[in-house]
Amino acid sequence: MRTLRPLFALVLVLCGADAAAQDAQPAPRESDVRLLVSISVDQMLPDQLERLAPWLEGGLGRFAKGGFVFERATLQYGETETGPGHTCVGTGLLPARHGIVGNDWIALDQSRSTYCFEDADARLVTSAGKTDAKASSPRNLRGPGIADHLRALDSRSRTCAISSKDRSAIGMSGRRADLALWWDKKRGGFASSTWYGEQLPAWAREWNAGWLARLAGGEFGSGWKHALPADFEASRTAPDEREGEVGRPGDRSFPHRTPRFTGELDEKQLATAASWVYDGPAGDVFVAQLAQLAQRELKLGEGETLDLLCVSLTSCDTVGHGYGPYSYEVTDVLLRADRLLEALFDQLDERVGAGRWVASLTADHGVMDLPEALAARGVDAGRLSGKVLRDALELVRPVVAAKFGADFYLAHHSRGVRLSLSRMQAAKVDPAAVRELYASELRKAGAAWLEHVVTFDELAGVARAGRKAKNELIALEAGSFDEERTCDVVLLAKRHYLLGVAAGTTHGTPHDYDRTIPLAFYGAGVKPGRSAEAASSIDVLPTLFALAGLKAPEGLDGKARLPR
Question: How many beta carbons lie within 10 A of that of residue 528, not counting itself?
Answer without folding.
Answer: 13
